[in-house]
UniProtKB/TrEMBL annotation:
This protein's name: Glyoxalase/Bleomycin resistance protein/Dioxygenase superfamily protein
Gene3D superfamilies: 2,3-Dihydroxybiphenyl 1,2-Dioxygenase, domain 1 (3.10.180.10)
Pfam families (UniProt xref): Glyoxalase_6 (PF18029)
Region described as Disordered: spans on this chain: 160-179
Organism: Geodermatophilus aquaeductus
UniProt xrefs under CDD domains: VOC
Keywords of the record: Dioxygenase, Oxidoreductase
GO MF term set: dioxygenase activity
Keyword Oxidoreductase: yes
Domain Glyoxalase-like: 8-112, 128-227
Length: 231
């Protein structure tokens, strides 16, 4: 594997405040004021960077947090609300067993009920749920070298061979990619990333440019942005 998922980068008006919120919810350790290191088998960090504009619209990816019981689900929800989260309506039905919340800047996440069999073998961070096509699930499986663990009815999921959360794509219908998406993948490659850029382009990615930190900016086949840098 030539690259790996090093971090999820989250654009925030107040990166340090958002880092404190997610540290409290997830129990992860701060590496600095705006980066969190997992304390479980999640193989990537959370990195918070400065945004210039408030969040608009719904993100194309969000965390699904698991529960061991209804009481455990209620504790997670209560803790998130105490830390500054809030309930969010994304069109969920009353009979659904997950609770949809937003962090202090409105980034959506779900606290799923204890009967969710799909995430039964996962830890607290059960999934990173993404809007996207079946084809983009295949792309990310090849890009990261993670096997498919679900591929039915145009829905796909991959998971690191080392465990951790599943990364899922829900299939159609899904909204178009937008520059307002607040979450993105940050990939790390060994050595000069140019060879890895060429490999990803051959798999269906598009090179967009370079940011101020020297990261190569790209989009996957669905047009969702991500960044690549040397390790």
């Amino acid at each position: 594997m030539a690259c790996d998922l090093a971090a999820l980068t989250v654009a925030a008006l107040d990166p340090q405040r958002l880092a404190r919120f997610w540290a409290g919810v997830l129990g992860w350790d701060p590496a600095d004021g705006a980066t969190l290191v997992p304390t479980d088998d999640t193989g990537f960090r959370l990195r918070f960077v400065q945004a210039q504009e408030p969040k608009t619209g719904q993100n194309r990816m969000h965390f699904d947090l698991t529960s061991t019981s209804l009481e455990d689900q209620e504790r997670t929800v209560a803790q998130a609300l105490d830390l500054g989260g809030r309930h969010v309506d994304v069109g969920q039905l009353p009979e659904e067993d997950h609770v949809v919340l937003g962090d202090p800047e409105g980034n959506e996440f779900c606290v799923v009920g204890p009967d969710n069999s799909f995430l039964a073998d996962c830890g607290f961070v059960g999934a990173l749920a993404c809007d996207g096509s079946q084809a983009v699930g295949y792309f990310w499986s090849r890009a990261l070298g993670w096997p498919l663990v679900w591929d039915q009815d145009e829905e796909t999921a991959i998971r690191s061979p080392h465990g951790g959360p599943k990364v899922t794509w829900g299939g159609p219908p899904f909204p178009p990619s937008s520059d307002t998406d607040r979450w993105r993948f940050d990939l790390a490659a060994d050595g000069d990333p140019e060879a890895e850029v060429e490999r990803l382009v051959a798999l269906g990615a598009t090179r967009v440019g370079t940011d101020g930190d020297g990261r190569v900016l790209m989009t996957d086949p669905d047009g969702t942005g991500y960044a690549l840098s040397s390790r």
